[in-house]
């Protein structure tokens, strides 16, 4: 017997919308960058990072924050457009 039930492995995966997954990943990356930046600012001279690296991290955090805001904005606009379309259809039908 080459295959048995003992050898079967399942990887549980949460059902997640693409936007939700993107938002979760952005939040995690923002949090990790903030922790890295905070530890670098409070560290000793051996562990501190250069000003250029700090500026780069701050820029990445700002970019990720903007991307997160945009990813939340797009679904809200789509919902609003759908509401307007639904209202227009009901007005035309009625």
Query: Beta fraction of the residues?
Result: under 5%
How many beta-strand elements? 0
Describe the main β-sheet briefly.
none
* Unreliable residue stretches: none
How many helical stretches? Answer: 2
Going by helix content, strand content and strand pairing, the class is mainly alpha
**H and E order:** HH
- Give the averaged pLDDT, no decimals: 77
Large-scale geometry: flat
- State the share of residues found in helices, binned by percent: over 70%
Distance between the termini: 68 Å
Gyration radius (Cα, Å) is 23 Å
Explain how this protein is built.
By secondary structure, this protein is mainly α. Helix content is about 70%, strand content about 0%. It has helices at about 20-40, 50-94.
Topology:
Layout: H1 18-42, H2 51-93
Helix pairs in contact: 1-2
Essential attributes:
72% helix; flat; mainly alpha; 94 residues; 2 helices
Quick description:
The protein is an all-alpha fold. The chain contains 2 helices and no strands.
């Amino acid at each position: 017997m080459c295959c048995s039930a003992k050898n079967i492995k399942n990887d549980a995966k949460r059902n997640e919308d693409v936007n939700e997954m993107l938002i979760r990943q952005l939040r995690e990356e923002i949090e990790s960058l903030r922790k890295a930046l905070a530890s670098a600012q409070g560290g000793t001279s051996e562990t501190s990072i250069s000003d250029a690296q700090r500026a780069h991290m701050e820029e990445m955090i700002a970019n990720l924050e903007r991307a997160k805001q945009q990813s939340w904005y797009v679904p809200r606009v789509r919902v609003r457009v759908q509401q307007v379309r639904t209202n227009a259809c009901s007005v035309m039908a009625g």
